[in-house]
Amino acid sequence: MTRIIQISDPHIVPHGQLAYGQVDTATALADCVETINRMLPEIGPVDMVVVAGDLTDFGTEEEYLRFREIMAGLELPYRAVPGNHDNVAVMRACFSDRPWMPSEGPVNWALDFGDLALIGLDSNVAACAYGNLSEETLSFLSGTLDAQGGKPTIVTMHHPPVMTGIEKMDLQNLRDSTKLKAILSGYSGELRLTCGHVHRNIVAPFGSVICQIGPGVSHAVTMDLREGAPNCLTKEPGGFLLHEMRGGIVSHHIPVGRFDGPYLFYPDR
To answer: In principle, which of 14, 106, 149, 206 could form an S-S bond with 211, CB 3.0–4.6 Å?
Structure first.
């Protein structure tokens, strides 16, 4: 039974800084790593961790090296795709020693676990908050899916192609998603599209597939569905997703941190 953990939007900043002057994202990512490692006996074995974009806040070498330093404590292998806060060229250089990082072009990759395939896509558009999939990326996706033969598949990228109702984030979602919808909806097997970017656990239909947006590791985009609402963050607890094969793709939301329990519901029975 394959299990994949998805973490999203670490937004690591340089040493001595807080993201947006508010959030200690490095400590939050370290807490996420600790939570995953501690919970492995209960939720494992886990085959892979995927980071769904915005590894850093400004895309600098210092931030990527700090991200790697924190993730070195993770007791699992991981792969990543870039988000709008990432710099693909700098990210490529900082992960050039990893076999999943292509030497040129979009940061696209694929893994086959036997009962489940995992595909990572690059939706980064340089210097833009919104996302887009290049023709090269769409061709990579189409060819990789064709080779799966209907195997259950998770496709991960940063920008969601669905409207969430959070106006300022919807303005920054994936552009030109018609071809993507056709490719995914035409797949013969079970397929789940997973994304980051919105820092909230949101599920929506996209064509004939489910699109699931993962929570942020450190903070959330404020839940404000009013028209004209400002773009704000809220210091809600961070979280991550656990995707597993259980007669189909099942996804769990797990909060980061330590909490009281477990307690038996009826200890005297």
So the answer is: 206
